[in-house]
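User: Good morning. I'm curious how NAP would be positioned relative to this chain. Could you predict the structure with it bound?
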Amino acid sequence: MTTEREGIAILPSYLRDQWWVPGAAAGPGGADPSPGADPVAVRDASTGETVTWLSTRGIDLEGVLDHARTVGQRSLGELTFHQRAVLLKQFALALTERKHELYDLSARAGATQRDSLSDVDGGIGVLFTYSSKGRRELPNGQVYLDGPVEPLSKDGSFLGRHVYTRLPGVAVQINAFNFPMWGALEKFAPAFLAGVPTVVKPASPSAYVAEAWVRILVETGLLPAGSLQLVSGAVPGLFDHLGLGDLVAFTGSAATAERLRAQAAPGVRFTTETDSINASVLGPDAVPGTPEFDAYVKQLMVELTTKAGQKCTAIRRAIVPEAAVEPLVEALRTKIAERVVIGDPRAETVTMGPLVSLAQREEVLQAVGRLQAAGGRVLVGTTDAPDITRADGSTGPAPDGAFVSPIVLGFDGAADALPDAVHDVEAFGPVASILAYRSVDEAADLVGRGGGSLVTSVATADPAVAATLLARTAAYNGRLLFLDRDDARTSTGHGAPVPHLVHGGPGRAGGGEELGGIRAVLHHMQRTAVQGSPAMLTALTGVWHQGAASRSDRHPFRKSLAELEIGDQIASPSRLVTLDDIETFARFTGDLFYAHMDEDAAAANPFFPGRVAHGYLLVSWAAGLFVDPDPGPVLANYGLENLRFVTPVSPGDEIRVVLTAKQITPRETDEYGEVRWDAVILNQRDEIVATYDVLTLVAKTVEEADATAAATAPPVSAEVGA
Ligand code: NAP
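Assistant: Good morning! Here's the predicted structure, ligand included:
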């Protein structure tokens, strides 16, 4: 048996819905006890003690992938977007409850409390965000519609539409060591919401943190079978078993990405988030003494020290006006001296932990050596091993800990003569270079020389500077952050991707795109153009299309969600439009716009034949025409969407409205749901006057409507009735 080494357990993998370690002969991941296997030790970043061992000797990766594609696809396929979204929230709550365990483990990988805030809480936050976005922005079904209907025949009997359906394979997520939770959950959440099963392969140095969050999710008992598997350790031959319909989302170094990309079969969706020599520009207006200068210094200090600089988004190049170099260095030195206490994160006073491993420390110091060889001078900090604060509060050297001081390098010479190394060498630790510029254009050139970055920030209060840098550098960046006195306090920061916005960058940054709200869910789905009749598109999408069958048996406002079906319709009688009505409405609302009140001026307008009815009058009348006034299952009208006025209405015209149930979205967690109604106002010549969607909240059952009416007030912004 190889289930432990030196009395310390081998870190289990979670495969085929069971925990597995090598040597668990009857286990699901394989049956090779492999007595000769050589597990790899994972060590505490501060003390060098062994935390766990990693080995996947004998793992059956083909079986793991097959389990995801069969069992995982099936169980996730039984759920709608909203049901998956509700589960994400439950996972987030379970992780929140056991956060302290994750913080304790993260400290072993070098994370301070503040670092864990971005990794642990940040990861949980991604789950909450995707849960909420999934329920607000996706239908409670399995097909996502992209863009409007395209009429493809004159009589409306042939339509086209783009739809997204989930990929049929498995999402393999290979993660970097620095964010074992956030980095994994920001991929897992969109994949899960899309309905694609995940296999997580964490980086070795912090794999035990990933094992912990997976264990917490498993222990909720809520994970659909096969929806999440974890491989703790190496994955040899993994790519031999991937094909069309599978995805790989890789985060790590550009060198590993290149190697793996070459192994991926055609058809595998392979996205990478790799290293990035991010820039932060101090605007020429942000001179010392301005709030922008202060915000810049603070941000640079935070980016240097958070996660000990092991952040893909950290600032590697501080691009500043020549005159600002000295004051910046001085301000940074002061700030670091005041705020930075290097040491074991388990000591309360420590504000910056070690790098993840001694190997990582070696790599960072080598990269600093390359920058020095290219002309870099250390302006702040030192490459010598620092004295540190130990867990017990004592201070002194720590030969077994991976500690490095914050290091800031400076380079002499003109911007266009700076060595390539400042734009190429990623020292993945608390290291940044200061580069001087003479003009905003020169600053933009320097940003671009990074070859594509995840993020650039700009501290300026001058919109002209910001506009130049947007135009010149946006194409080189996945994200741009403009920092000024108004947002300095509330900014989420240069280095913090947020789930609502795209994370990824062009070129060297990997060319990938993650997060960005529902965009990330769609990355796990295939967009397909679907053509067919209105009835067929209605059946396939669950959304009523003009031209499909409709029913007018009973007023649809008398039907609860249990009874209502898409296609349920009310066609109203007509109503005459008089000049008197128009004038009354104008006086009542104060909308005396000439097109309604002045015949000559209205007729001179290119769009109107003379005085016309207010569009809002028509919409109000339409509500009066289609509404059923008595209390019933319709609880509230919460908005209109896509309102277009098409044909003007003159006094003497008649209007009528046709209202059809278009989309029904029961809420998973409430006793009501949303109904989107297709509304069309027509005139006496059957010309379309206006089109829009009416949005209502409708009770799931009639009894619930009564109970809801008795127990709850409608939302503040909702207008009761229709
Ligand atoms: P890495 O050495 O490239 O490793 C990344 C991941 O690839 C790890 O999980 C690693 O597993 C795995 N891996 C290595 N060889 C593999 C193989 N043959 N097959 C399958 N997986 C393999 O990078 P790292 O040192 O963990 O992370 C640091 C780098 O990541 C930095 O360059 C940083 O800029 C970049 N990063 C980028 C982002 C971003 O979003 N752009 C975020 C974080 C980090 P093992 O650990 O087991 O070898």
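The chain is about 30% helix and 25% strand. Residues 174-178, 201, 203-204, 234-235, 238, 251-253, 256, 260, 273-276, 312, 426, 428, 454, 509-510 surround NAP (CB under 6 Å).
Let me know if you'd like a different ligand tried.
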